[in-house]
Amino acid sequence: GLETAGVGVACGADVNSFKPGDKVMAIVPYGGLAEFAVAPAAESYLIPEGMSFAEAGAFPVAYISSHVAIRWQGRLEAGETLLVLGAAGGVGLTAVVIAAASTAQKRAVAEAHGADATIDYTTEKLTERVMALTDGKGADVCFDPVGGALFDSALSSLGWGGRIVLVGFVGGVPQIPANRLLVKHRAALGSSLRYFRWHAPDKLA
User: CB-based contacts of 119: which residues, under 8 Å, 6+ apart?
Assistant: First the structure.
């Protein structure tokens, strides 16, 4: 219920960017699954032509979360390689380049959404596969909404100066060995859309 989409029925007195009847999507603190929801104008967006309410209702958190994680935290640059764990999930699909997922169906979904390569981490060794795909250089950035048992292999998949961006822990909270960050000049960074919105709202404007 942190995001929602629908038709505006009323606007606040100081709101001039929307009008009743507009189709909007929004990030809300709670209540997005209710029949009616109240959303701040600054967190609301007009739904583009051709986007359904179902798509719009799942768009803001996933795509803005990925934007924050990749642009502001991971600082991904042109020509760099991005490894995405949990690549068939809502957030993972917004960021695919090398997609790691557990089933053929999930990998097919990632490919359909633009993945350049996929990895079956249930049968392939993640680190070895990433190194093979990057000519031994390793990934520059890993986008990780999973954590858990995959974290260690993902960290080893990074090249010198690589950044792993922690977006969630559906697989468990990993313990980060500081010595492995130091030796390869790597960085582990957290990325939470909710707190980013509070502390750096100007970057989302």
Answer: 98, 99, 100, 101, 107, 126, 129, 130
Residues 11, 162: Cα–Cα separation, whole Å: 45
Q: Locate tokens 């989409």: which residue?
A: 5
DSSP string, 136-169: TS-EEEEEES--TTHHHHHHHTEEEEEEEEE---
Q: Are 45 and 24 in contact (CB under 8 A)?
A: yes
Q: What is the pTM of this model?
A: 0.81
| Percent of the chain whose predicted confidence (pLDDT) is above 90 | 68
Could you report the per-residue pLDDT of 157-195, keeping only the tens digit for each?
Answer: 999 999 999 998 989 999 998 999 999 999 999 998 877
Contacts of 32 (CB under 8 A, 6+ apart): 1, 2, 3, 4, 26, 57
Indicate the residue type of 110. A
Give the chain as a DSSP string: --EEEEE-----TT--S--TT-EEEEE-SS-TTSSS----GGGEEEPPTT--HHHHHTSHHHHHHHHIIIIIIS---TT--EEEESTTSTTGGGG-SEEEESSHHHHHHHHHTT-SEEEETTTS-HHHHHHHHTTTS-EEEEEES--TTHHHHHHHTEEEEEEEEE---TT-PPP--HHHHHHTT-EEEE--HHHHHHH-GGGG-
Take residue 126 and report the two structure tokens written for it: 């993640």
